[in-house]
Amino acid sequence: MTPADLTAYLSAFRARWQVTLQYRAAALAGVVTQIWWGAINLMVYAAFYGGTSAAPLTLPQTISYVWIMQGTLALMPWGCDPDIADAVRSGAVAHDLLRPVDPWWWWFCRAAARILGRLLPRAVLMAGFAGVLLPLAGLDRWALHLPPRVADAALFGVSIVLGLLLSACITVLLNVATVRTLSPLGANAVITPLSLILSGNMLPLALFPAAVQHLLLLQPFAGLGDLPCRFWLGTLHGPWAAAALAQQVAWIVALTWGGRLALRRTLCQLEVQGG
Amino acid sequence: MPIPPARIVVEDLHKTYRIATRAATSPRPWPFARRAWRTIEALRGVSFVIEPGTITGLIGPNGAGKSTAIKILSGILRPSAGHVSVGGLVPWADRIRHVGRIGVVFGQRSQLWWDLPVEGGFALLRDIYRVPPDRYRARRDRLVDTLGLRDILDQPVRQLSLGQRMRAELAAALLHAPPLLILDEPTIGLDAPSKLAVRAFVQELNRTEGTTVLLTTHDMHDIEALAGRVIVIGHGRVLADSPFETLRATTLSGRRLTAEFDGPAPPLLLPDGVTPLSQGGQVLELGFDPARIAAADLIRALASAADMHGVVLSDVSITRPSIEEVISRFYERHGAAG
């Protein structure tokens, strides 16, 4: 390799490195993810080694929890609507404004429809596998079990619908962030670890340290997984059930309001490229 | 409820963009790099009035500001200053009402849903624009017939050829019978028959329904075929606003005459207002200004010169400079090229 070759490769290295450094949000999100991941691993090991303290969930409950979480994985706001990300990339995002419709509702409906379309088939298949196939195969111990009462199942249904609306609200916010930053990378990098961890998908929220339990139950992502799961397991009753549903509704209202405000401001400042 | 025709009034429109010049050029290391901003004036005082029922071409070189103007008129962009009224509505302030009364086609991007069949896309637009079902059916059938869409109604948009897609886009933009149709480069990338079809359709629409049409294009034949009037934008200003013939006459009025002889072209004492362009063997090319010498006089002079030298003037053709030449010359003259 001649020195001139070396200059070319060094130059390519430097250019790519500078471009990569520009994704500050992604770098920050990466670090935050790794910290959370590490903390969760530590907690799992601590439970494994310590072992004896009274577990907040029984093993069968945890098993059902895990299957529901896996079955409703599509409920997570995985990121900005890919169509919108494309439109941002091509500069066509403002074209949604050509329609005589309110852009927030337009995006919200699209997000909700997309989540539902991904959720339904996956949830049904998962229920078939974990709830029917596993018991038939003699693995009842590892299967998804039905909620203890019909009322719990009904509340679970309501809570899942609220979770879907909540997820759509968050998706619209991610769309707005994508329009603002002109790239879906930052928003998507932040939301994925955040929602997987804070919804209880990685580890049931009940297994987190007692000190943060209240905080964890109040934050919006609980409504995407943990709260519906608790309804399924039948651990929420009376005022607690009402409070859990109210928590979900409150976040939907707050995120709708905030999302509409953010969208309005973003569209006002939208600077479409082009001559 | 037929919507009243829309008069477009644009007064002293300005639009300034702020563009981030990326931190990559900053000497300071991340994360201390500060974003630098650059201001771009896309429009600096554009004014014009468009009467209902007319076809107007909005042209200009790339980056001249015409897309910005179109986006402001479509209600998707706010100007930094200035006033716009389309049929009494301010596009960005009354956006929802305004966009319900206009149809917009962007040649570069599809507004139909990529994965839906054409018919499904139309039905979605029917609901978005709240077109009553019976009115929708009649309108759709007419558009499908005139644009020859019958055979592609059940095909997903992504499977259509560009020509088919553009015809579908035109129908989609007109389902709600808007009195104003905005076309942004509607013939870009189309083959010749598709271009002709689009032009013929737009002309017919304007004639039969009185639809006001505002179009931008880089294909000057669109302008020649369609627009009675052109507004030329360059550097964010209106450089010219006149019928195209006036623009041609004031920019590049010369004619080109090609004469063929049955022997060597005779030497000719050139009359006033004539310039030699090329001479080779039996062919002579001259440029002349019809305001200074009539074509008949020039041809007569050529014929008698041929007679004197014992050859015959066997063929003559006179052409006008191509519309591309006219417009390039105009951009050059205003320093607006590129």
From TrEMBL, chain A:
Keywords: Membrane, Transmembrane, Transmembrane helix. Pfam families: ABC2_membrane_6 (PF06182). The chain crosses the membrane at residues 21-40, 46-68, 119-138, 153-177, 189-211, 231-257. This is ABC transporter permease. It comes from Gluconacetobacter tumulisoli.
UniProtKB/TrEMBL annotation, chain B:
The keyword Protein transport does not apply. PROSITE patterns: ABC_TRANSPORTER_1, ABC_TRANSPORTER_2. Keywords: ATP-binding, Nucleotide-binding, Transport. It comes from Gluconacetobacter tumulisoli. Residues 8-260 form the ABC transporter domain. This is ATP-binding cassette domain-containing protein. GO terms for molecular function: ATP binding; ATP hydrolysis activity. The keyword Nuclease does not apply. Coiled coil: none annotated. Pfam families: ABC_tran (PF00005).
